[in-house]
Design a protein that fits this description.
single chain; 234 residues; alpha/beta; five-stranded parallel beta sheet; two-stranded antiparallel sheet; 10 helices; 7 strands; 47% helix; elongated
């Protein structure tokens, strides 16, 4: 997988340093520059052509949203994740309208930050393999960023049960088999397997094979956002 070249933009030097350190902790990301003003950010994008900008809203010369809109006006081929203390709805609306892929409100921890980067990594990887898209491809891309619209589930699946299975996967530190999910939720093993296979098909979970001393390999699942942080067991 190619390295994702990233630009950090924040007016606070210490915060920018933290964001840089967080980004460099995530495998597959490289920080190519740090900017502290909107103008410097625009110049850095033009010079360095990064893949991703991690962008604050509050900047001394222009807002991060103005930076983002200017990048869209210039048709710069760069994606953006907003990381900011701005909690007003208008800032969120402006970021969404300008195409920000994520909006993370400060303060946050490394897990929250890395989850956004891992989601972007999946999104970027999938998009790079496509020449044209069908609706299923679009749904998978949105799911990769965790921004999928609520979908109509197959007739044999129910949303409360799906959310229960997802929560159970999220709360586990290791990959889970259908039997693990069944024992944790009270579902039957077959029902648990059906929901796990659906999540895998939607790109929201990843299946790993665990080989024992004999017999067929065991199918184990974890949420896609946790895959990069937890290599498959062999």
């Amino acid at each position: 997988m190619s390295v994702i070249r990233t630009l950090i933009v924040d007016d606070d030097f210490l915060v920018a340093k933290v964001h840089r350190a967080y980004t460099e902790r995530v495998q597959g990301f490289e920080v190519v520059a740090v900017a502290h003003t909107g103008r410097d950010a625009l110049d850095a994008v033009e010079r360095l052509q990064p893949d991703l900008v991690i962008l604050d809203v509050y900047l001394p010369d222009m807002s991060g949203l103005e930076v983002l809109h200017e990048l869209r006006h210039r048709r710069a081929p760069v994606d953006a994740i907003i990381v900011t203390a701005a909690k007003d709805v208008e800032s969120l609306r402006g970021a969404m309208s300008a195409g920000a892929l994520r909006y993370i409100v400060k303060p946050f921890n490394f897990e929250r930050f890395s989850d956004a980067l891992h989601s972007y990594q999946r999104f970027s990887g999938r998009l790079s393999t496509l020449d044209e898209v069908e609706q299923e491809d679009v749904d998978r891309l949105y799911a990769a960023m965790g921004t999928a619209p609520e979908q109509v589930l197959p007739k044999n699946l129910h949303r409360p049960t799906l959310e229960l299975v997802m929560k159970t996967l999220h709360d586990r530190s290791d990959a889970a088999s259908a039997l693990d999910i069944a024992e944790s939720t009270g579902l039957s093993r077959g029902t648990a397997r059906r929901y796990l296979e659906y999540l895998e098909g939607q790109g929201r979970a990843v299946m790993e094979l665990r080989y024992g001393s004999a017999g067929r390999p065991e199918h184990r699942y974890r949420l896609a956002s946790r895959t990069a942080a937890h290599p498959p067991a062999c």
